[in-house]
């Protein structure tokens, strides 16, 4: 039961297909899919929010501040924008996602169970209502306006110039 010493022969075998030629890290299939899914706005809904430091703060040619001030203000702008966004999403993202999910669930439920059946019912009833409305106008409104029209048809206006 003494110490036994063995010489281990270790070799690494790599397929040429899996070796990255770009010099970047070798990614597994799951990591490649995750890298492809980094676009969280595929439809460009918030393309107008891609603002940089130069879009907000710009100095004309003749009025430049010191280079160190410009670099520090740029760094502070980017850092504060990054950290504040992360902090706000940490605090607000989950509650707002819950609220928006509830709102869309309620709207979907109302649309499916109330709005669509009501509209379909109205469309089924409208031909009957149209027939009844036409009968009522033919019985009451049309004779009234025909008699008024006949009364005023007998009126003649003559203008004499003196």
List keywords for this structure.
3 helices; 162 residues; mainly alpha
Number of strands: 0
Sheet of most strands: none
Query: What percent of the residues sit in helical stretches (DSSP H or I)?
Result: 55-70%
Strand-pairing-aware structural class: mainly alpha
Give the number of helices: 3
Rounded to an integer in angstroms, the radius of gyration calculated over CA atoms is 39 Å
Give the gist of this structure:
With 162 residues, the protein is an all-alpha fold.
Question: What's the helix and strand layout?
Answer:
Blueprint: H1 29-36, H2 53-56, H3 67-153
Structure characterization notes:
The protein has 162 residues and is mostly helical. 61% of the residues lie in helices and 0% in strands. It contains 3 helices and no strands. The protein has helices spanning 29-36, 53-56, 67-153. The radius of gyration is 39 Å and the shape is elongated. The mean pLDDT is 81.
